[in-house]
Amino acid sequence: MTEKGHVGSTSDIHHAGKAPPGRDLACGYFESRCCRSCTLLEHAYGATLRRKREVLAQLFPITPLAPFVHCEDTAGSRIRAKLAVSGSLTEPQLGFYDDQQTIVPVTDCPLHHPLINEWAQRLPTIIRNTGLTPYDPKCDRGELKFVVLTCSPTHQQLMIQFVLRSREAIDRIRGLWRRMAEAEKHAVPVLSANIQAVRSSRISGSDEISISEQTRLPIRFGVVELLIGPQSFLQTNHEIAVKLYAAAGQLLEQHGAQNVLDLYCGAGAFSLTACASVRSVTGIDSSRNAIDCAREAAARSHLHHAQFLCRGLDQLTTDELAAENFDTVICNPPRRGLDPASVTLIKTLQPRYLIYSSCNPATLQRDAQILAADYELDWLQPFDMFPYTQHFEVLAKLLRR
Prior knowledge:
Distance between the termini: 17 Å
CATH superfamily of the largest domain: Vaccinia Virus protein VP39
Helix content: 25-40%
Low-confidence stretches: 1-23
Structural class: alpha/beta
CATH topology of the largest domain: Rossmann fold
Strand order of the largest sheet: 3-2-1-4-5-6-7
């Protein structure tokens, strides 16, 4: 590792690849002003990266920034789509909410993986044939609120989750599964229904009903195969996620990390990919579904150095973890950043290194300031996880003072 302060010297952590491609994304929805979700689509791709880097540099003016890790090809890069449903049973519409909370019909997004677009265009017929009346939030009637499509690009398979207002349509969805041809079941091995009974900004509820026999979708990240359930957190860009986990793994290896604690571990992405060189890794998450996925993936890959605990961070005591002598903590919190319990845990355990993956640089800046008495923010690398939007992922390295 080179000395802090030489911004260009950090490229040995993860080479950002060749220069951003000159070919930019064409989108008829954007050009017709039908969908404006990709707010930076009118700019050349390289220009969008420069704009994002400027945002990061303004938030962290004295921290070395490694090169921006970009998409080699933005088209088809998103592997999860959360499509809202509106319209009527005879003419269902699927798409995204705009600023006025009106659904903009989009079933062929150029950013979505081709398999997602293929099934998104088949969904209206499926909805009609299955009798899934689109939900109307104004009068709180209807059944189908969202359809979530998750693609495994390494297996060319899809997971479909129907988000419903009640259990009224469950038998009809089971009938849909029975009618599907074997080739369709191979393409869509995981089918589930989720019950979201209340009016809420949350897309899904806690009640998940498996329709298919298989309940988890395998996705390979490097040499490790992860398992993703309908409610599992998943980075939406597979190419960039692979590079993100590899960069974290190189940091751990270069610093000689041995015992790693993975907070907000989800389905074990960082634990099972980035921690290949460590002696032990313990992942913690409050989601039973995520922990079950992580444990099964670890068992399938014979990664016996990884263990996973289904616990809320506020339920843990320092004594439970202090004996492990963690020298490194990895954390990948939601957009709101670290919660007070995780901050307290980090300050108490005092690991030598903190590897922080953030999808919100503003909360990363706040958390770095909260931890500043104990940790120095040493290095940052941005990853273009969300091309043509204002959002991006940042990998940060903090050193104990």
